[in-house]
Specification:
about 50% helix, about 300 residues, alpha/beta, TIM Barrel, binds flavin-adenine dinucleotide
Length: about 300
């Protein structure tokens, strides 16, 4: 990563919120559920499906966790009423995991039960490594009660190959991603190429099992590896899909859809946009750099 990009990344926590919002608006559908519905309809027109995320995390107040449950109920009702080809993604700390595992379990159970009633799938997002064990425990408990449920594994973590073998054999629906949270070297790989290979190995373990796999990446090398592996292991198209984030590489999205692959876009919305946006910009400071360059070019040309 260039010096300028490292500098942009390091200065993000001190950047005024309105600037972060300006650069990050491509990653978020908007503040309201209606904004998310509009985005999902547009994506459906492009041949994609969606997973809707109500932005929010690190909740420390049980009342806020209950509000998040209510917000997801509204999303589920809207998916049904507006006939959206969409499911939902939920963060455990938004359901109160930071307050207590029992609370998060109880809140998530309400969301999953309502989704099951409406025939909608729920993905439990994976957050930083301090939450991995609890998230997998909550997943396991709820999976014994409901089948409309899946979880996420992060290739970055050293434990993931073992988790993938286990969950793959249990027929779990797993989203595999690189992992956005930077973790200590003792528990996570740091080199981009090692993370890529760890992704491939975890994917192989999941394909060898009998579950469904959501391959969440914009990395074309990994997409190529996925297709090659699926062909080699004779994994049918019905057993996997690709997933991408809203605002990232729409051209690649179109290439995959035109090639006949199932493509789901992660559509976050809501007022708690800040932590998610900072993570996305940290991941790709080129976005800020390109924006600043265009801004100053316009000023010089004026
Ligand atoms: C649907 C979905 C759900 C996810 N859920 C989780 C989760 O539950 N837990 C978790 O830890 N992580 C999650 N992630 C994030 C993931 O772990 C990665 O951080 C993110 O996808 C970037 O990794 P990559 O595989 O695309 O590879 P990268 O090497 O980071 O990116 C490949 C290329 O994609 C483009 N790109 C990537 N990110 C951006 C960006 N922000 N802005 C513009 N271009 C970009 C660039 O062209 C880059 O060269 C999710 C990702 C997706 C797609």
């Amino acid at each position: 990563m260039s010096f300028v990009n490292r500098l942009l990344k390091a200065s993000l926590p001190f950047t005024p919120k309105f600037i972060v919002r300006f650069f990050a608006k491509r990653y978020v559908a908007g503040a309201s559920l209606e904004d998310a519905v509009r985005t999902v309809n547009r994506l459906m027109g492009e041949g994609c499906c969606a997973t809707i995320d109500v932005l929010g995390e690190a909740v420390r107040n049980p009342q806020l966790a209950s509000q998040a449950v209510a917000a997801y109920r509204e999303v589920l009702a809207t998916i049904t009423e507006r006939k959206l080809t969409a499911n939902i993604s939920v963060k455990p700390t938004q359901m109160g995991l930071g307050i207590g595992e029992e609370l998060a379990l109880a809140n998530l159970r309400q969301v999953v039960a309502e989704a099951a009633r409406l025939g909608i799938f729920v993905r439990i997002d994976m957050e930083d490594a301090t939450t991995t064990d609890a998230t997998l425990r909550i997943y396991k408990t709820l999976r014994e009660e409901y089948s409309n449920l899946g979880v996420v594994l992060q290739a970055r973590l050293r434990r993931t190959l073992a988790d993938a073998k286990k969950l793959g054999n249990e027929g779990t629906n797993v989203r595999l991603c690189k992992g956005i949270y930077l973790e200590p070297r003792t528990i996570a790989y740091e080199e981009p190429d090692i993370i890529r290979w760890a992704f491939v190995h975890a994917l192989e373990a999941l394909f060898a099992g009998n579950g469904y796999v959501a391959v969440a990446t914009h990395d074309e090398w990994l997409i190529e590896q996925t297709l090659a592996l699926a062909e080699k292991m004779q994994v049918p198209q019905e057993r996997f899909e690709f997933q991408m984030l809203l605002g990232v590489d729409p051209a690649l999205r179109r290439i995959l859809v035109n090639a006949g692959h199932k493509l789901r876009v992660y559509v976050p919305f809501g007022s708690h946009w800040y932590p998610y946006s900072v993570r996305r910009l940290r991941e790709n400071p080129n976005i800020i750099r390109a924006g600043l360059e265009a801004f100053f070019r316009r000023r010089l040309e004026a």
